[in-house]
Design brief:
Length: 460
């Protein structure tokens, strides 16, 4: 029988120790808010209801999550004052009477995995299932108290624990599955009679024990899955853990990564075979690499598709662009949004391309700006050439025909069309369309003034 369950994510905490105006759960791991990680993991296991208890920075949290996830299915419950974890769960009480069970997660414990949750679900049979961990240094955590036959009978918070209890290394991760047929009743009975004056969720365990409800546990092997973020040190630690998970996935899919500690993946990468990634690359959003793609050191690639056999040389930045087969980009190239490089193109150093198509076999090799342009096939753009696409108010297009040859240092003042096979003399300022297969030059005639230098030097 499959169990129908709710998930409640507590996300009301203030996060004082982050020293930030941003609500804690919106701080990012892999460029995605921590709360969004937890919501995505939650959704992957299809709960009946997904409830987020919010409080501090509530509207900001709600609007950002809604914007990122286009989500109308979340149930939001406000916890106006943070009176403890038990109080937080109680804020969602009206939703907890339905279905079999409720899984509790945290917006600041971002790396909990689907696999761990499944292990917990497998142990659920109208009992409590608690996720525990063994910490060599358990300071700060609630300790798991077991009786002499090893059954959990309660949890004691650090601040309420005696010396003997503090020596226990098995801790409460704060993640549980509760049986709904008892949960609401227990929540009604919670008190704040403890050293912190808070309503402790952990008190539910003792209630369960006294009511004769079984408490089972799952021990979490990967500690980072249950680690919470209270400060920037912990945020950085989990960021590195998350990155290692991402790179391991890529390595397992056959990508060659020179150093898995020097790559950052802030999104999803799809890859073909025989891809190679050198050090210090950052991938953002959705990036697709075809077969035999080589990415040199220090590249940033965002929301782009890099097709088979492409080589991206070091220090290149590519955003919202597509590079087709066997092309070469960089070193030091920048492809801005809307760039499309067709097969066998070469984009060289200090070249910026924006919202332009570069046709098959065309080359833009040195120090050039191409914006709002369509370049045909087998075109050569000389060093230092520029499409002057902006007059301060509007943008205009440049169209360069197949087989054109643009001499170095050419200014193409848009809107303008360079005909197929045109040759443009170096240093030209092109303001009018140029005819096909003809030489067009626009530059002052070169003159030599005989004897001028001699006279000039004699004056000194
Ligand atoms: C809690 C557990 C402790 C466990 C630890 C694991 C209790 C009483 N103790 O302690 O046994 O070892 O987690 O990390 O539950 N929150 C709210 N509203 C509140 C209070 C908290 O939303 O009123 C949220 C926080 O934002 C945070 C989470 O609940 O995400 C845990 O709260 P926190 O105060 O950090 O709990 P701990 O004292 O660490
Ligand atoms: Mg606390």
């Amino acid at each position: 029988m499959s169990i129908k369950f709710n998930i409640v994510i507590l996300a009301a905490g203030r996060g004082t120790r982050m020293y930030s105006s941003i609500p804690k759960v919106l701080h990012k791991i892999g460029n995605k808010p921590m709360l969004q990680h937890v919501i995505e993991t939650s959704k992957s296991i299809s709960p009946q209801q997904l409830i987020v208890v919010y409080g501090h920075g509530g509207e900001q949290v709600k609007s950002l999550i809604a914007k990122n996830m286009y989500d109308t299915e979340l149930i939001w419950c406000l916890q106006e004052n943070q009176l403890g974890t038990g109080h937080a769960l109680k804020c969602a009480n009206e939703y907890l009477k339905q279905y079999d069970a409720t899984l509790l997660l945290y917006g600041d414990v971002p790396l909990i995995s689907q696999n761990t949750i499944k292990q917990m679900q497998d142990k659920f049979a109208d009992n409590i299932v608690i996720l525990t961990a063994d910490f060599p240094n358990p300071t700060g955590y609630g300790r798991i108290i077991r009786n002499d036959v090893g059954k959990i009978i309660k949890i004691v918070e650090e601040k309420d624990a005696n010396q003997e209890q503090r020596a226990i290394k098995e801790v409460n991760t704060g993640i549980y599955i509760f049986p709904n047929k008892y949960l609401s009743g227990w929540l009604e009975k919670l008190t704040n009679n403890n050293s912190q004056g808070e309503y402790y969720i952990t008190d539910l365990l003792e209630m369960a024990y006294l009511d004769g409800v079984d408490i089972s546990s799952v021990s979490c092997a990967d500690v980072f899955e249950v680690m919470g973020v209270n400060n920037k040190l912990q945020l950085e630690y989990l960021e590195r853990q998350y990155q290692l998970i991402q790179t391991d996935k890529l390595l397992n899919k056959g990508v060659t990564i020179i150093d898995k500690n020097r790559i950052d993946i802030r999104g999803e990468i799809k890859n073909g075979i025989d891809c190679f990634i050198d050090i210090n690359c950052i991938f953002e959003g959705n990036v697709t690499l075809g077969n035999n793609v080589t990415i040199g050191a220090n590249c940033i690639i965002k929301n782009s598709v890099i097709h088979d056999g492409v080589e991206i040389k070091p220090n290149s930045i590519i955003e919202d662009s597509e590079v087709f087969n066997n092309s070469q980009v960089g070193p030091y190239a920048r492809l801005r949004p809307g760039s499309k490089l067709l097969n066998n193109t070469h984009i060289g150093n200090f070249v910026e391309i924006k919202k332009s198509i570069v046709g098959i076999g065309s080359k833009v090799n040195h120090l050039t700006y191409i914006g709002d342009a369509t370049i045909g096939s087998n075109v050569n753009i000389g060093a230092g050439s520029i499409t002057c696409n902006y007059d301060g108010m509007h943008k205009f297009n440049t169209n360069i025909g197949d087989n054109a040859f643009i001499g170095s240092g050419t200014m193409m003042v848009a809107p303008v069309k360079i005909g197929n096979g045109s040759i443009i003399g170096a240093g030209s300022v092109i303001t009018k369309d140029t005819p096909e297969n003809e030489l067009t030059v626009s530059r002052a005639k070169q003159v030599t003034i005989l004897g001028w230098v001699k006279k000039f030097r004699q004056k000194k």
